[in-house]
Amino acid sequence: MTRVVVHAGFHKTGTSTVQHALAQNRDALAPHLRIHLREDFDPLTASARSWSVTRSDKHFAAIGRNALRFFRSIGREDTRPVLMSSEDLCGHMPGRNGIAAYDAAPDILRVIADNARHWFGPALDLVIYFSTRAPDPWLRSTWWQNLRSTRLTKDLDPYADDLPRAADLSAVADAVRAAVTAQVVTTPLEDSAARPEGPLAPLLDLTDVPADVRAALGIPPPVNAQPDLGMAEVLLALNRSGLDDEALSDAKRTIRRLAVKRSNLPPHA
To answer: What is the structure's pLDDT at 267?
Structure first.
């Protein structure tokens, strides 16, 4: 049997921290685990994001085509588990591009699962894994991320009022469970964050990484964390300003650099 673990989200539930830890420890984990991050299947995540916005037949077909192309690059004789991780396998983050929920996730993951099964056949042991988070902190975190990355001009409360279904991450996981022939596993970030390997821990459990290997891993601090410097208000004011897009991006980069200096956040956070 070949275990394939698809870490498909959700956004702002420790996924960037997990991916940074996997990249940092790729060599140490290689004897036990085949790691594939977003850059290894970028056409697949691009088509998933596109279809979550357009719902076009063209982009939906691209999901299946790119999924199969990716799985065909994975050797079937190798007995190590496969772990692929990208929150964009659920489509775009809600709160941008007119997306108010993870409605695209069940169909995207069903197509990915079908193509994994086509390639690996009856030897496939497929697990879809989601990290989840309580609604209020998830909404605040996605609001912050969208303030940073888009021209969002809404205050937190009206933003949250637009996304009640998106914030019920357990319900989204249940919808995926109903749509996909695979084991679907969830762990709240509030639980995994307290473990020695942080939000990476449940994925190490699912892939049976030995305890001695786990103990030797270098676990980075959380990334993409929101600094407690009143930046949300600054970004909101910038988004509402008359700055053109280029000037706005420059201003946000400058503010971010100052925040990194002040709060000692990782530069990529």
So the answer is: 44
What is residue 124's three-state secondary structure?
A: strand
Joined together, the tokens standing for residue 55 give: 């719902």
Sole residue written with tokens 């749509």 = 179
CA quadruple 189, 199, 68, 95: dihedral positive or negative? positive
Q: CA-to-CA distance for 184 and 176, rounded, in angstroms?
A: 8
**Per-residue buried b or exposed e for 100-121, using 16+ beta carbons within 10 Å of the residue's own CB:** ebbbbbbbbbbbbbebbbebbe
**Which of helix, strand or coil describes residue 192?**
helix
End-to-end CA distance of the chain: 37
As a whole number of angstroms, the distance between CA 158 and CA 156 comes to 6
Nearest to 18 by CA among 40, 36, 42, 30: 36
Mean pLDDT of the chain: 94
pTM: 0.93
3-state secondary structure of 115: helix
The predicted pLDDT at position 38 comes to 97
Q: Which tens digit of pLDDT belongs to each residue from 18-51? A: 999 999 999 999 999 999 999 999 999 999 999 9
**CA dihedral for 114, 58, 82, 106, sign (positive or negative):** negative
